């Protein structure tokens, strides 16, 4: 570690745990035996206390004659069993001795079941008993040997049933999007599945639940988990099938998350991609058999180009406009080491790479200002290094950088950094004489024009915060019209009515003979759809457009190949667009309906997964769910809805409508 200073250490339906709320009814103990609503106590999945008081005004109603009870003032409450085992606990106020009895039957014909008087003055009394789901049970509480009042609390609970995905064969499907679509799940009530091979990290998976997903074409996925009532989770990734699972290398984690999810698992397969199109299983459990709710998402792009966090994926600076960027990881390749890092003693921490090529002589400088989420200045430690000049991009860069700043603010200078006139040093350490965050500007001579410089900007604090870099150039167009290997500097695909317009900006088109536009439906196999002759601009920037009259419904991927006179070529990055022609009218059968509706042909409208939303006559959404294209006919239960007119909306994964329909609920 450097002595600079110490480093320090986000598609399916969310399954929610059903817990009966204590606030449903204001529970009040009854003086006589009663099965009235006011004295009904809830049964929860954990012990959650409700008030149970026996005031001095209550009288004696029942003499059980067991557990030391007698003909003393008593109070009653009751519950309906929700499981085959129920635990009842009474917690008294003060140093008093409660006695508790349990009955079934009716007030006119009670059947004694159990009692508890084990813990004396101030102690809780508990009964755990085999119960019948749906049966009503009566609880009697008295104070031992006296009619004096006694206040306290009562909790009634049963173990939750296992979640639906308790076993591998019932794994919940997770749909993979480009960004994290966080869903809430639970492992409350989960039992050990005993599946082999076992996980390679954390504690035994005694409370494990299961998920599965299909990796996108790129395989570059991230699996992220966040805290709920469960704050320390773990997961293991598998491939294969439930009867024949195999461990995925590096696929077990229990505490790689970042605060406030530091004890939650996180897996990153951007640099070691999974196999696109393959089904993977996630085994998820709580550390040391803990359980609760947690968030989980799987996300990744269909196409994953070399990231800007790696030198070979650097961003081409094509004009003098400000650079705004942020990074939250280190990329996939280690581009810096002892032979080329210069002053950056910690190598790469959290940075991004850039290429620029000056087209005129004179001084070239910049000022870098760290910024927060609102774009306002903030105190973040950024460092940088620049290599060059070179005739072609070399990654990793060779030799020491020609400019480098490792200044440690605020000990040395301000939180700003860069290259500025008035500074004579070309490299500076974390601190020391003359260290202020700025080094001398680059003086571009006649022999340097058209040459290439490689720049690395590093966030030493590793907090993902952004920066704003403003150039200080000898001439306004000093960085325009660069002669870098990437000819296409901007590419976009835009839907315009019934076609897609592919638009791009090119630099130095005088070198090229033509552009070839290619399209793909899977982000992997591309086919040409048109050719466009280059429009020479005498070394400037040119703008081009080609319309795709026959895009596929769903995802379309586009790229442009710039072909030079001598046959040399360069390929642009990939632009993608989700194309839809029109919003369709959904055919809903039956109509009117009473129990269930069928969205006739809706699955043919979907590309991958769609969301179905149901709105009542006032426009309020009363129900929604997700449905995959290969999930069969789209059917929707409506039996519990009120009578009236309803609207069904079918949405794609981006939230855009695919179709609408209307029906009447009888």
Task: Tell me the layout of helices and strands.
Layout: E1 50-51, E2 74-80, E3 85-92, E4 98-106, E5 109-116, E6 125-130, E7 136-143, E8 152-157, E9 172-173, E10 183-186, E11 209-214, E12 222-227, E13 233-241, E14 244-253, E15 266-268, E16 279-286, E17 293-299, E18 315-316, E19 323-325, E20 351-356, E21 362-371, E22 382-390, E23 403-405, E24 417-419, E25 427-428, E26 438-439, E27 442-444, E28 452-459, E29 466-473, E30 488-496, E31 499-507, E32 512-520, E33 527-533, E34 541-548, E35 554-564, E36 569-571, E37 575-579, E38 584-585, E39 587-589, E40 596-600, H1 602-605, E41 609-615, E42 621-628, E43 634-637, E44 644-651, E45 657-665
Parallel strand pairs: 9-11, 18-20, 23-25, 24-26, 38-45
Antiparallel strand pairs: 1-8, 2-7, 3-6, 3-8, 4-5, 4-7, 10-17, 11-16, 12-15, 12-17, 13-14, 13-16, 19-29, 20-28, 21-24, 21-27, 21-29, 22-23, 22-28, 30-31, 31-34, 32-33, 32-35, 35-36, 35-37, 39-40, 40-43, 41-42, 41-44, 44-45
- Count of helix runs: 1
Please tell me the total number of domains.
5
CATH class of the largest domain: Mainly Beta
Can you tell me the overall shape? elongated
Derived structural class: mainly beta
**Main sheet: which strands, in order across?**
18-20-28-22-23-25
CA radius of gyration: 34 Å
The CATH topology of the largest domain corresponds to: Jelly Rolls
Strand content: 35-45%
Nearest-integer average pLDDT: 86
Largest sheet: 6 strands, mixed
Q: Which percent range fits the helix content?
A: under 10%
Distance between the first and last residues' Cα: 71 Å
Q: Could you list the spans in which at least 5 consecutive residues all have pLDDT below 50?
A: 5-25, 481-486
User: What is the tally of beta strands?
Assistant: 45
CATH architectural arrangement of the largest domain: Sandwich
């Amino acid at each position: 570690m450097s002595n600079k200073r110490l480093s320090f250490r986000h598609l399916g339906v969310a399954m929610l745990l059903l817990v009966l709320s204590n606030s449903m009814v204001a529970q009040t103990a009854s003086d006589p035996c009663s099965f009235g609503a006011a004295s009904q106590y809830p049964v929860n999945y954990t012990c959650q206390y409700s008030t149970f008081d026996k005031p001095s005004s209550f009288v004696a109603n029942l003499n059980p004659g067991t557990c030391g009870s007698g003909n003393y003032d008593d109070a009653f409450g009751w519950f309906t069993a929700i499981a085959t085992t129920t635990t009842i606990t009474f917690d008294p106020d003060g140093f008093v001795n409660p006695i508790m009895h349990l009955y079934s039957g009716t007030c006119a014909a009670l059947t004694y079941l159990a009692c508890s008087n084990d813990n004396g003055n101030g102690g809780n009394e508990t009964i755990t008993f085999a119960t019948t789901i749906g049966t009503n049970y009566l609880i009697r509480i008295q104070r031992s040997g006296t009619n004096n009042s006694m206040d306290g609390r009562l909790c009634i609970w049963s173990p939750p049933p296992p979640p639906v995905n308790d076993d591998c064969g019932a794994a919940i499907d997770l749909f993979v999007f480009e960004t994290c679509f966080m869903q809430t799940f639970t492992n409350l009530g989960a039992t050990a599945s005993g599946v082999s091979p076992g996980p390679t990290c954390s504690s035994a998976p005694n409370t494990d639940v299961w998920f599965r997903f299909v990796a996108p074409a790129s395989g570059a996925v991230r699996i992220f988990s966040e805290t709920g009532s469960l704050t320390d989770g773990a997961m293991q990734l598998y491939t294969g099938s439930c009867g024949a699972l195999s461990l995925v290398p590096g696929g077990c984690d229990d505490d790689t998350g970042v605060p406030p999810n530091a004890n939650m698992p996180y897996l990153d397969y951007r640099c070691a991609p999974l196999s696109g199109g393959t089904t993977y299983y996630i085994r998820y459990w709580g550390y040391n058999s803990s359980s609760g709710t947690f968030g989980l998402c799987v996300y990744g792009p269909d196409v994953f180009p070399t990231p800007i966090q790696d030198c070979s994926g650097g961003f081409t600076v094509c004009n003098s406009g400000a650079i705004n960027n942020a990074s939250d990881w280190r990329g996939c390749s280690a581009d810096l080491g002892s032979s080329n890092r210069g002053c950056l003693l910690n190598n790469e921490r959290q940075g991004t790479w850039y290429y620029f090529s000056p087209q005129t002589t004179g001084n070239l400088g910049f000022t870098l200002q760290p910024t927060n989420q609102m774009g306002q200045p903030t105190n973040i430690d950024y460092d940088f290094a620049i290599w060059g000049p070179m005739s072609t991009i070399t990654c990793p860069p060779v030799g020491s950088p020609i400019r480098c700043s490792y200044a440690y603010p605020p000990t040395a200078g301000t939180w700003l950094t860069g290259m500025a006139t008035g500074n004579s040093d070309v490299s500076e350490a974390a601190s020391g004489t003359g260290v202020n965050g700025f080094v001398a500007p680059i003086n571009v001579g006649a022999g340097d024009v058209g040459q290439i410089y490689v720049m690395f900007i590093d966030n030493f604090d590793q907090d993902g915060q952004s920066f704003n870099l403003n150039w200080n150039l000898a001439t306004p167009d000093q960085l325009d019209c660069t002669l870098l290997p990437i000819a296409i500097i901007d590419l976009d695909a835009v839907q315009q009515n019934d076609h897609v317009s592919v638009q791009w900006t090119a630099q130095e088109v005088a070198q090229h003979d033509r552009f070839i536009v290619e399209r793909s439906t899977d982000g992997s196999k591309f086919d040409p759809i048109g050719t466009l002759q280059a429009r020479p601009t005498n070394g400037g920037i040119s703008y081009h457009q080609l319309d795709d009259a026959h895009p596929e419904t769903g995802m379309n991927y586009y790229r442009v190949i710039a072909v030079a006179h001598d046959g040399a070529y360069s390929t642009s990055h990939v632009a993608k667009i989700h194309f839809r022609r029109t919003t369709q009218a959904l055919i809903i059968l039956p109509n009117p309906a009473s129990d269930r509706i069928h969205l006739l042909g809706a699955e043919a409208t979907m590309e991958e997964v769609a969301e179905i939303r149901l709105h009542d006559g006032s426009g309020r959404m009363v129900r929604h769910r997700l449905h995959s294209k290969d999930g069969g006919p789209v059917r929707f239960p409506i039996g519990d809805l009120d009578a009236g007119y309803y609207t069904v909306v079918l949405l794609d994964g981006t939230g855009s409508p695919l179709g609408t329909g209307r029906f009447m609920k009888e």
